Amino acid sequence: METILSQFNKLKEEFLKDLIEFIAIPTISTNPEYQDKMKEGAQFLVKKIKSLGGQAQIEETGGHPIVYGEFITNPKSPTILIYGHYDVQPPDPMEEWISPPFEGTVRDGKLFARGATDDKGQLWIHLAAIEAFQRANQPLPINLKLILEGEEECGSTHLIPYFQSHKEKLQAHAMIISDTPFLAKGVPTITTGLRGLIYYEIEVKAVDKDLHSGSFGGAVDNPIHGLSRMIASLHDEKGRIHIPHLYDKVRPLSQEEKESLEKLPFSEEEFQKSIGAKQLWGEEGYSILERISTRPSLDVNGIWGGYTGPGAKTVIPKKASAKLSIRLVPDQAPKEIARLLEEHLQSILPSTLELTIKPLETSIYPYSADTSHPYFQKAKEALSQAFHTDQVVFARQGGSIPFVPIVAKTLSIPCMLLGFGLPDEGAHSPNEWLDLENFYGGIETMIRFYSSLGE
Amino acid sequence: METILSQFNKLKEEFLKDLIEFIAIPTISTNPEYQDKMKEGAQFLVKKIKSLGGQAQIEETGGHPIVYGEFITNPKSPTILIYGHYDVQPPDPMEEWISPPFEGTVRDGKLFARGATDDKGQLWIHLAAIEAFQRANQPLPINLKLILEGEEECGSTHLIPYFQSHKEKLQAHAMIISDTPFLAKGVPTITTGLRGLIYYEIEVKAVDKDLHSGSFGGAVDNPIHGLSRMIASLHDEKGRIHIPHLYDKVRPLSQEEKESLEKLPFSEEEFQKSIGAKQLWGEEGYSILERISTRPSLDVNGIWGGYTGPGAKTVIPKKASAKLSIRLVPDQAPKEIARLLEEHLQSILPSTLELTIKPLETSIYPYSADTSHPYFQKAKEALSQAFHTDQVVFARQGGSIPFVPIVAKTLSIPCMLLGFGLPDEGAHSPNEWLDLENFYGGIETMIRFYSSLGE
């Protein structure tokens, strides 16, 4: 392994140059005008994988293509499936960028560019690790399969069907997803759990048409009032979600998880400061970190009704609407929680109103990894060595990644969320950046991890 | 008077023709492109008043002009100040008009046109009544002052200052405003009270920026939830506004008012049906008619926050906003109720949130007429004779007319809301119409009323 690491050290500049070349292709998946650029990005990856000695092909999906790559060195060796995405968010607002979004620019040890951390930089870590083996004339100690998506920023519409219809081809011993951040700089983090999600649009209707509040005010149950009463009742005074049986299936944290959570380097004070909250809030009896990563949460994500323009309009609107979502944790099943929510909304509906409930998007299962799998320990060691720290942590995250629980179930393999981002890299904002220590540390981690699997 | 009435009967067709000519000028005050048409409308009125033997002039206001007219026949006779407005709402949506909005068209005893009932038709009733006297070669039995506004549909910005700076000139024994509807066809109605209004925009802020509901859900008091809790708490379970001392100054109805209210031809069932409400609602212990005309009411007129576009966005918004208004009844003073509301909102503000309260528009006082004034009785008799019915009613209305309470106070005269519209004439909608029986009945009413004052 020393040969490879020493070769890697010589190649650092080159790897960065290659990444900047990749970043220069504006693969904006949400904008149809960039369809050709998406193709160019996919072809760039195919060419790169082939140049590293792998097989690669573009898989048409009906949307933006998936790039599939393979490095099969020895059928008896372990096989790792790697996920990354080559599409990026639009760069707007353009005027806020200090350097052009598609011209990767290094300042203070950071690479600034759209896609630097989300996810081109993290994807490139894997290609660079493979290249380090190749350039050192060392065979890869394991087999690799790469699935590089072009629709992560626009809903991953075709990813799950692709997984489901290519089970055999994608079979592996574990999957690695590099699209998550460290808990903090210097704290390498393996994300071991994700929350699930259900998302609804609800509408309450009181009357057939907007009414004048002078002529009707006092005789009609304003739907904004009714909706507000319903929303207000969805939490109790202890910050718990007030939907019967919602917590029934929440799996309590193990003693080990609890202890590990308490040891995480997390400051509630800094958390509060970073978002400018007057006061933090939440479920009594749980720390902030527990609340945002291990407990279900309910949020109204949007609300609208009546007159919202400038000035005054004295209207009683005929209806009011809200978008409402619940983050789920193991072992809450989206279908069951959806049923509980729907039944509860009907049960608290004022008799003056009519309710329409519309589920939006596909539900997402919560995910928790079985960290007793030996690969987790090996990854932890690789991170520890590559980042020169004993403080490598396992931590759940509060967000959701739709395909992770499905892949884990479909392929029956552990999914390791081994990401190399940082929390404040502005993934979807102007001046997105990638920490170069994390970029190089990530490559070294993969070299060490693959080597340890081959031993 | 018989001479005049018989003359009037001969002139009916001509009066309608004149009104249609007046209506043909598209005096849309809200659209700057129609500024010339507004001037043309004002000049049309000046010319008409002069042709009837009156004095008339255009009064520049800084906005659209006020037309002031005068018929002073005998300084010893009573003087009536008449209010009407010559501006109209925009006709949109144009495609829904059966006949062109500015080509007055008669179908089934109704004149269809923009402004037919609001307010050109009602304004013309007064000019036609004067003309009936003139054409019968009879002197007007009273003095008349006319104040014809061009900004009623765009906020009446300059009307109140005009009243306040022309107190002497406008001095009269009573004011008549013809811009309100009958309670129902065949039920001539003198509106004896109006509700007042205060209007606020409120904003609650939780954090400095929109947050991802995955990473933060469960640890931040979503401002939509907080705002909903506040709104939900503003009414109690008995439909009363839950703001301390809000009802302290509400003047109870007199026994006479109560009895009169109960006698009004009003069907709660039809009311409910007309608005398509699943169920009516309101303050326990009061009828629907009491609730909408004699009791204060609080309505959120608009609410917004977070993501309101199509599909799902998992955001915890940094803030949420609402427009909120209270209708006031005698003797609630806007300033005092505003103070109670502001103090109460502060007192129920969750400690997690910051509140901004912004008053919108000018407050409006509630109004109630002293119906013991002899003019009310005389107007009632005139209506009874002109409309051939004993069922002439005094009724409060739930809406607000800003200048009425101010004029009543500034000039210290009774304001009679003697309107000739009907509730379903679609004042601001396509195919607005005026009932021609009411048009002619209105003219006859004024002839009879003026005659009785001169006796």
Outline of the structure:
The structure is a homodimer of 455-residue chains. Chain A has helices at residues 2-23, 35-51, 120-135, 159-165, 213-216, 223-232, 255-263, 268-275, 288-293, 334-348, 374-386, 403-410, 436-454, and strands at residues 55-59, 66-71, 79-85, 105-107, 110-112, 143-149, 174-177, 189-194, 196-205, 211-212, 297-306, 315-316, 319-328, 354-359, 367-368, 393-396, 415-418, 433-435.
Pick out its properties:
Alpha-Beta Plaits; 18 strands; four-stranded antiparallel β-sheet; 455 residues; alpha+beta; nine-stranded mixed β-sheet; Aminopeptidase; homodimer; 2 domains; globular; 34% helix; 13 helices
Most extensive interface, residues per chain?
A-B, 79 and 79 residues
The average pLDDT of chain A is 95
Instruction: Sum up the overall morphology of chain A in one term.
Output: globular
Structural class of chain A: alpha+beta
Superfamily (CATH H level) name of the largest domain in chain A:
Zn peptidases
Can you tell me the CATH architecture of the largest domain in chain A? 3-Layer(aba) Sandwich
Give the number of DSSP strands of chain A: 18
User: Could you tell me the strand content of chain A as a percent range?
Assistant: 15-25%
- Span of the ends, CA to CA of chain A: 11 Å
CATH class of the largest domain in chain A: Alpha Beta
Give the biggest beta sheet of chain A. Answer: 9 strands, mixed
Uncertain residue segments of chain A = none
Give the tally of structural domains of chain A: 2
**Oligomer class:** homodimer
User: Level of helix content of chain A?
Assistant: 25-40%
SS summary, helix count of chain A: 13
Integer-rounded radius of gyration of chain A: 24 Å
CATH topology of the largest domain in chain A: Aminopeptidase
